[in-house]
C-alpha cells in the first residue's frame, strides 16, 4: 500500500509539472510571435526566480521573459548567438562561439534581470574547484597572461587510470587509499566588472564518489566550460 501511495504521488507530481510547463509554453506563444520568434525555441530557467531565457533555435535571437506575465521584460537581442550556456544560483552564462563574447544574466534585488556582455579581453580568469568532506580544492585555473595555476596543476582528473583532460603539464593525481566523496563542483568566472567581478556557477551539489561515473560526467561538463573560457582568454590577448 505504501509503495502504491508513493508511486501515485510521484506520478501526480510529474503530471502537475508537465501540465504547468505546457500551459506556460502555450501562454508564451503570443509574446514569441510578436517579437519575431520562430516555432522552434528553447527555454532556460534563471534558477531561484520567475525569469526564463528564451532562445530561438532557428535564428540568432534571445530574450528574457517573466513566467507570471508571459511577457518579455528585456529587449530581444539579435546580435548574440547562444552557442553554449549554463545556469545556476540566479545566474546565467552564455557564450557566442563565433564572436567569443560572453553574456551574463543575473537576477537583481528587484527581481529583474541585469544583462551584461563581455568581449574576450574582459574575461580575466576561469577556475574549477570541488569540495570534499575535508577540503575545497582548485582543480584548474587559467588567468589572463598565464597558463594554469592551482593546487592540482594539469587539469581535471577523469577515470580510475588517472587520465588528465584539459591540462598543460600532464601531471597525474595518485589514487586515494580511502574513498573520497565530492559534495560540490563549482565554476568561477572572473570578468572586468567592478560591480560583479566574480560569477560562480554550481555544476553539482550532493554527495558522489570521486572518480565514479557521476563524478566523471560532472567533470566532463566542467572541463568543457574550462576549455571554452581558456580559448576565449587566449583569443583576447
Characterization of the model:
The protein contains 2 helices and 15 strands. It folds into 2 domains: 2-118, no CATH class; 122-235, no CATH class. It has a 5-stranded antiparallel beta sheet, with helices on one face. A 4-stranded antiparallel beta sheet has the order 1-2-3-4, with no helix packed on it. The protein is globular and about 60 Å long. Helix content is 24%, strand content 38%. Strand 14 and strand 15 (198-209) form a beta hairpin. By secondary structure, the protein is α+β, with helices and mostly antiparallel strands. The chain crosses the membrane at residues 148-168. Keywords: Membrane, Transmembrane, Transmembrane helix.
> Which whole number gives the mean pLDDT?
81
Q: How would a crystallographer describe the biggest sheet?
A: 5 strands, antiparallel
Low-confidence stretches: 147-174
Shape: globular
Run of helices and strands: HEEEEEEEEEEEEEEEH
